[in-house]
């Protein structure tokens, strides 16, 4: 299943060393999610502390487990939207596969 995840970071002020440690752990965990094919894309919303991500997980429970293990989870406001394939995308995929078969 694919999900659009909006994560607003509300991390409070803290000692610079602690903040750097947490941010480093967050980057490392995000790379692990990318390597596992769960975190597909990540965007920053300009002028905010919000990120929008495209995640792929087996189900909502797996996604919840992934998100709740984020090092910054306790400071995040997270919204999740499950994504369904649009009929237009199905038509494009069918056209792409028939073109590949004839090539």
Automatic annotation (TrEMBL):
One Pfam family recorded for the sequence: MIase
Domain of life: Bacteria
Domain Muconolactone isomerase: 1-88
GO molecular function, one term: isomerase activity
Keyword field contains Isomerase: yes
Keywords associated with the record: Isomerase
Transmembrane segments: none
Listed name of the protein: Muconolactone Delta-isomerase
Organism: Zafaria cholistanensis
